[in-house]
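Dear Dr. H.,

I hope your travels went smoothly. While you were away I took the liberty of generating a structure for the chain from your last submission, since the lab meeting agenda had it listed for discussion. I wanted you to have the full record in hand beforehand rather than looking at slides cold. The sequence, exactly as received, is reproduced here:
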Amino acid sequence: MHTTGEVTTEATFDVLSEFLSRLLTTAEVDAIDGLATSDISFAHFRTLMVLAGRARALSLAELAEILHLSVAATGRNVDKLVGMGLVDRREDPSDRRVKRVSLTDEGHHRVTEHLDRKEDEFRNFLDRLPAALRDDLHQVLHSIVTGDYLADPDPVFVHRRQKATR
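The corresponding predicted structure, in token form, is as follows:
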């Protein structure tokens, strides 16, 4: 459908909102199915995702603030994840009172599996598009991404792209 004249911001918002909602729902269903069959609760997985997006180990207090939980609740989350071998907790070398939390290799693996499932669904969607529509979508999105229209990328995805290009 080709329109003449300028498309309003509201009309574009409506189409973009519908597109993102449907695309993300499609991708999330498969990814959540994988998570639901695992032994990790959503609260625990959220902790893994936060840790995956950081370039350094976080203190329990920092993690609690990001998760909007008490330090005690965060500590219980971390205890469970340590017991599962997904998170490592160590003393801060400069202050032994502070405990630093980071993902283990298995924790990274779980996060990567989840994100891979989502990416596979995005690729499946793109494979279903006619080539001309996929080309148009690529050009428009490329112009937006390379322009100065968006915030900095999510650290989890930057880390994944950097890792994939090594």
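Two observations you may find useful: The longest helix spans residues 9-36. The chain has one domain: 9-128.

With kind regards,
E. W.
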